[in-house]
Inverse folding.
């Protein structure tokens, strides 16, 4: 293996706990040697805190928070040090454990994973003021955090599409770990302790006991049985604060008022300093019954998901995406991310001043726009962006004639119109008619905004499978149109 240098590393993977770091290390395809310390490196003393290695074609730096120092400030300082030592880092992943917030939309269980989901109003993570809630007030969002980089959002779409089509790989990665570390002795294996969600009115009985042996089993929330070996992935908001949440009332309030799926303690320290995606394995329900039994397994499932995500993320070369540091120097982004004015929608776009990417055909393998292979479409988009914008515009006008209030395929006629578009443009993708389940936002007269609204309104994101028909609530036609326009806006201006 050729010797590496700092600039070879483009992915920063941050953990809070040694257990989370262990799970990440076990999943590396290769472990690299430590780098020599440079004389002028002010972070030299921290360098041995990193683990270097690769996952697929990505060279990854894994960093862990100093022992015993959890919380937002500690995460910020680790991210800043990481970025100053490794100046080519293109994006980050925050991978570890968190408390689940079960709700009506998402049946979140121990060992499941919550991935921060971008919405129109926030970047997937909010910081909330813990004290306000304890005093009986409403939650106050104390900061608006910026969004993950586009390259990760595109990879997420691809991964979700794969999962819908039954092509999921993280279970294979989990099985790989079991082969490496025998289950009996492994702190990373699925625990035998039962997954019980207690009703919010039943507090942990014996505070000195780490198990729930004295807690009343009849006071649990009834939930349908599930295949124990198949963790589910949920996409939702992650609520972050400096204090640990151990209170079911507070947890449920976070679910109601913020629509949070997960609570944790570090992500808010990263988002504004370090564009990243947050991936949390659920190890407890953030209530008084919380213990550490599930932490190792939850950390491992989260790391396996992160590995699968990297496997569908293209390796970003210089000039294709600005480095994290460049993004932070952009006055627009900095202003937006430090703004506390929640009435103003904050959608920092780190890519607005990026020159068109120089894309080498041989690097397109494995890249997808939505579900369309990059090789099939990207060279053509780059060659004639105006043509593609006009084509999509024509398609939208045709769809609007069929349904002036909303234009997505639901009827034979709209599906045919969309399929004509894909066929006419020699794209192999075709849409099927899927039954609509969610309330559709109305068309506002602005095509691009409406497409964004549709995408974020469950149409581009998998929101779980309907138990009756097993039909995922995703509209791949919209996902693909959205992805094409995102690419045109980003790389072909
Ligand atoms: Zn208990």
């Amino acid at each position: 293996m050729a010797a590496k240098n700092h600039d070879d590393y483009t992915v920063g993977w941050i953990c809070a706990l040694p257990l989370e770091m262990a799970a990440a290390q076990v999943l590396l395809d290769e472990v690299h040697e430590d780098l020599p310390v440079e004389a002028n490196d002010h972070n030299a003393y921290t360098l041995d805190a990193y683990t270097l290695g690769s996952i697929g074609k990505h060279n990854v730096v894994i960093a862990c928070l100093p022992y015993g120092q959890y919380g937002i400030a500690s995460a910020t300082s680790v991210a800043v040090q990481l970025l100053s030592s490794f100046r080519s880092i293109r994006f980050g992943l925050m991978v570890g454990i968190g408390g689940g917030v079960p709700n009506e939309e998402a049946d979140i269980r121990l060992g499941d994973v919550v991935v921060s989901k971008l919405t129109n109003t926030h970047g997937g993570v909010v910081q909330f003021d813990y004290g306000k809630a304890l005093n009986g007030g409403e939650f106050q969002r104390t900061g608006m955090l910026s969004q993950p980089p586009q390259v990760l959002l595109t990879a997420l779409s691809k991964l979700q599409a794969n999962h819908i089509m039954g092509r999921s790989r993280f279970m294979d990665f989990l099985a790989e770990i079991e082969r490496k570390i025998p289950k009996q002795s492994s702190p990373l294996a699925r625990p035998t302790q039962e997954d019980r969600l207690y009703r919010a009115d039943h507090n942990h009985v014996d505070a000195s006991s780490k198990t729930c042996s004295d807690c009343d089993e009849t006071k649990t929330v009834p939930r349908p049985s599930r295949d124990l070996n198949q963790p589910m992935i949920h996409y939702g908001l992650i609520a972050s604060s400096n204090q640990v949440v151990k209170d079911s009332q507070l947890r449920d309030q976070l679910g109601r008022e913020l629509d949070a799926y997960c609570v944790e303690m570090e992500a808010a320290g990263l988002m504004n300093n370090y564009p990243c995606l947050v991936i949390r394995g659920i190890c407890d329900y953030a209530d008084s019954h919380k213990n550490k039994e599930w932490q190792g397994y939850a950390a491992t499932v989260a790391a396996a998901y992160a590995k699968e995500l990297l496997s569908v993320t293209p390796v970003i070369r210089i000039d294709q995406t600005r480095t994290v540091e460049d993004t932070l120097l952009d006055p627009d982004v900095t202003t937006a991310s430090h703004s506390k004015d929640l009435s103003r929608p904050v959608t920092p776009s780190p890519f607005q001043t990026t020159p068109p990417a120089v894309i080498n055909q041989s690097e397109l393998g494995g890249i997808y726009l939505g579900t369309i292979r990059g090789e099939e479409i990207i060279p053509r988009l780059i060659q004639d962006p105006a043509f593609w914008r006009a084509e999509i515009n024509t398609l939208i006008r045709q769809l609007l004639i069929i349904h002036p209030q909303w234009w997505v395929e639901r009827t034979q006629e709209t599906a045919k119109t969309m399929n004509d578009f894909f066929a006419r443009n020699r794209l192999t993708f075709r849409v099927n008619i899927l039954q609509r389940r969610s309330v559709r936002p109305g068309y506002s007269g602005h095509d691009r905004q409406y497409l964004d609204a549709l995408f974020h309104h469950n149409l581009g994101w998998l929101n779980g499978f309907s138990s009756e028909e097993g039909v995922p609530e995703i509209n791949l036609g919209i996902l693909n149109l959205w992805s094409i326009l995102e690419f045109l806006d980003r790389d072909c201006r």
About this structure: Residues 328-357, 459-473 have pLDDT under 50 and may be disordered.
